[in-house]
C-alpha cells in the first residue's frame, strides 16, 4: 500500500484519480495486517486497488466525473465495493472516468483528461480509453494493483486494451449494480481491471455474487474462477466472427488477431469461422438503447437531491432544473440526454427505441446460435491503438466507432475478456477479446490464460 501511495504521488500528472484516500488506505492496510496475523485473510487481503468514481463509497466523495455531483458523499457503500472490502481489498482512491461513464477516451471528465502512461516515440500524450480510463491508467502505471471498472458498451475492455492491461466485463447480472451510479441499467456491469488474467479471476470472485438489492442480479453461485485457469484448452472450439473483419481495419489489428488464432491452434484448440449477421446494426442499436436509458436515469439530477444547484432569486422550479442541469452536465452528457429523450418521445418511440430492442434481440440470437457450436469467440477489442488526446473530439460518430467490437457482447449481456497480446507499429499495446456464453466467465478466463 505504501509503495502504491508513493507511485500515486509520482504519477499525479496522469490525473488517474479524482480523489485520493491515502490515510484511509493505510488504515485499511493495518486492519488487513491484523486480520492476517489472526489467520483470517480474505481473498484480496491487503491488496491496494483503485475504485472507479462511479461506485458509491460511504463518506468518500463520489462524482461520476460530473460537475453536478461535485461534493456528493454517499451515506452507503455499493455492493461490489462492500464485497471487495469484506475480502480484504484496500482502497487507494477514486479513479477518473468519462462523465457518467459516457465516452471512449476519458476526455469528457469534468476533472480533466487522463493521460495514458504509454507514449509513442514522439512522446505525444495519448488517451487511456474510456470510460474506465483512470482505472486502466492507474493499473498500467503501478498506481494500483488492480481497479474496478464498469462496462456498458466497452468501458472496461477498451481502456484495458489501450493501456496494456487485462479487463473483464462479466455476464450481465454477475455483479450487483446496487450503489453504482446508473448510466444504462440494462447494460451496466462492473468488473475487474488487472495486470494478469489470474488477478482478474481472483478479483471477480471477490466482487461477484447475488444481491437482493439489485433485481437484475443473478441468483447463481460464484464459482472458483481461479480454478478455471488450467492452461488446458485442448479440444475447445473457438469461433472467429467473419463480420468483425470490417473494411478499413488496420493491418496490424488483423495480424494481432491472426497471431491469437495461431496461438490457440498451437495449444490444441479448434478454430472455426462463425457468423454474427446482425453485427453491423450493433453500434446503431447501442447508441439508441444506451442514451434512452441514460436520459431516464439522469432525470434524478434535478438540482434538489444531489450536488450542484443553480438558481437566481425569483426563479421557478423549472428555471432551477434548467439552470442546474445546464451548468452541471457536460456536452457529451447533454447530447446523450437529448438523443435519449428524442428516441423515447411519442411518435418516435416505435421507429427508434422499439426497433432497437428488436434488433438487440437478434444480436443476442446471433451469439446464441454461434455458441451452439463454439465455446468462446475471439475478436479484437478495439479497431486501433490508443489515439492522441483531442483526436476524434469534434466528431462524436467517429468516437462512437471505437466501440464497434465491444458493444455487441454488451447488448447480448455476455462476458468479455480483453487482454494485451501485442504492440502496434508505434509500440502501443493492442488487445484481443474473448466473448463467452452467459455465466461462463470460466471459459474466457481459461482461454485468456493461454493467450496471455
Ligand atoms: N464508449 C461507450 C459509450 O460511450 C461505452 C461506455 C461504457 O461502456 N460505459 O457509451
From TrEMBL:
Reaction equations catalysed: L-glutamyl-tRNA(Gln) + L-glutamine + ATP + H2O = L-glutaminyl-tRNA(Gln) + L-glutamate + ADP + phosphate + H(+)
InterPro entries cross-referenced by the UniProt entry: Amidase (IPR000120), Amidase_CS (IPR020556), Amidase_dom (IPR023631), AS_sf (IPR036928), GatA (IPR004412)
List of catalytic residues: 52 (charge relay system), 131 (charge relay system), 155 (acyl-ester intermediate)
SUPFAM superfamilies membership: Amidase signature (AS) enzymes
Keyword Protein biosynthesis: yes
Listed EC numbers: 6.3.5.7
Recorded GO CC terms: glutamyl-tRNA(Gln) amidotransferase complex
PROSITE patterns assigned: AMIDASES
One Pfam family from the record: Amidase
Residue ranges of domain Amidase in the record: 1-445
HAMAP family cross-referenced by the UniProt entry: GatA
Complex formation: Heterotrimer of A, B and C subunits.
Function according to Swiss-Prot or TrEMBL: Allows the formation of correctly charged Gln-tRNA(Gln) through the transamidation of misacylated Glu-tRNA(Gln) in organisms which lack glutaminyl-tRNA synthetase. The reaction takes place in the presence of glutamine and ATP through an activated gamma-phospho-Glu-tRNA(Gln).
Similarity comment: Belongs to the amidase family. GatA subfamily.
Record protein name field: Glutamyl-tRNA(Gln) amidotransferase subunit A
Species annotation: Thalassospira marina
Amino acid at each position: 500500500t505504501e509503495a502504491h501511495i508513493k507511485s500515486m504521488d509520482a504519477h499525479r500528472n496522469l490525473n488517474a484519480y479524482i480523489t485520493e484516500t491515502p490515510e484511509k488506505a493505510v488504515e485499511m492496510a493495518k486492519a488487513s495486517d491484523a486480520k492476517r496475523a489472526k489467520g483470517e485473510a480474505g481473498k484480496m487481503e491487503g491488496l491496494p486497488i483503485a475504485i472507479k468514481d462511479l461506485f458509491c463509497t460511504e463518506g468518500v466523495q463520489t462524482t461520476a466525473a460530473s460537475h453536478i455531483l461535485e461534493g456528493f458523499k454517499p451515506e452507503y457503500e455499493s455492493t461490489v465495493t462492500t464485497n471487495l472490502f469484506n475480502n480484504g481489498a484496500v482502497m487507494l482512491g477514486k479513479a477518473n472516468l468519462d462523465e457518467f461513464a459516457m465516452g471512449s477516451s476519458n476526455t469528457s471528465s469534468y476533472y480533466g483528461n487522463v493521460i495514458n502512461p504509454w507514449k509513442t516515440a514522439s512522446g505525444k500524450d495519448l488517451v487511456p480509453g474510456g470510460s474506465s480510463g483512470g482505472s486502466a491508467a492507474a493499473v498500467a502505471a503501478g498506481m494500483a494493483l488492480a481497479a474496478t471498472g464498469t462496462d456498458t458498451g466497452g468501458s472496461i475492455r477498451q481502456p484495458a486494451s489501450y493501456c496494456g492491461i487485462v479487463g473483464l466485463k462479466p455476464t450481465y447480472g454477475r455483479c450487483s449494480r446496487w450503489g453504482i451510479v446508473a448510466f444504462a441499467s440494462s447494460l451496466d456491469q462492473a468488473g475487474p481491471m488487472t495486470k494478469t488474467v489470474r488477478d482478474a479471476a481472483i478479483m471477480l470472485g471477490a466482487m461477484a455474487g447475488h444481491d437482493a438489492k439489485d433485481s437484475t442480479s443473478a441468483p447463481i453461485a460464484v464459482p472458483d474462477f481461479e480454478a478455471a485457469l488450467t492452461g488446458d484448452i485442448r479440444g475447445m472450439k473457438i469461433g472467429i466472427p467473419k463480420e468483425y473483419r470490417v473494411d478499413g481495419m488496420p493491418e496490424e489489428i488483423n495480424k494481432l488477431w491472426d497471431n491469437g488464432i495461431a496461438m490457440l491452434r498451437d495449444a490444441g484448440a479448434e478454430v472455426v469461422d462463425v457468423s454474427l449477421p446482425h453485427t453491423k446494426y450493433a453500434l446503431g442499436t447501442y447508441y439508441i438503447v444506451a442514451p434512452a436509458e441514460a436520459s431516464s436515469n439522469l432525470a434524478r439530477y434535478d438540482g434538489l437531491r444531489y450536488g450542484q444547484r443553480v438558481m437566481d432569486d425569483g426563479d421557478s422550479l423549472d428555471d432551477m432544473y434548467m439552470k442546474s442541469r445546464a451548468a452541471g452536465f457536460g456536452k457529451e452528457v447533454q447530447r446523450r440526454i437529448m438523443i435519449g429523450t428524442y428516441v423515447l418521445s411519442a411518435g418516435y418511440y416505435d421507429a427508434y427505441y422499439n426497433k432497437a430492442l428488436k434488433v438487440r434481440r437478434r444480436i443476442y440470437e446471433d451469439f446464441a446460435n454461434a455458441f451452439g457450436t463454439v465455446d468462446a469467440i475471439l475478436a479484437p477489442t478495439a479497431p486501433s491503438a490508443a489515439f492522441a488526446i483531442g483526436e476524434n473530439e469534434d466528431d462524436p460518430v467517429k468516437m462512437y466507432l471505437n466501440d464497434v467490437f465491444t458493444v455487441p457482447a454488451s447488448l447480448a449481456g455476455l462476458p468479455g475478456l480483453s487482454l494485451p497480446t501485442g504492440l502496434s507499429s508505434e509500440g502501443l499495446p493492442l488487445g484481443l477479446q474473448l466473448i463467452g456464453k452467459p455465466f461462463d466467465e470460466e471459459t474466457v478466463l481459461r482461454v485468456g490464460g493461454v493467450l496471455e
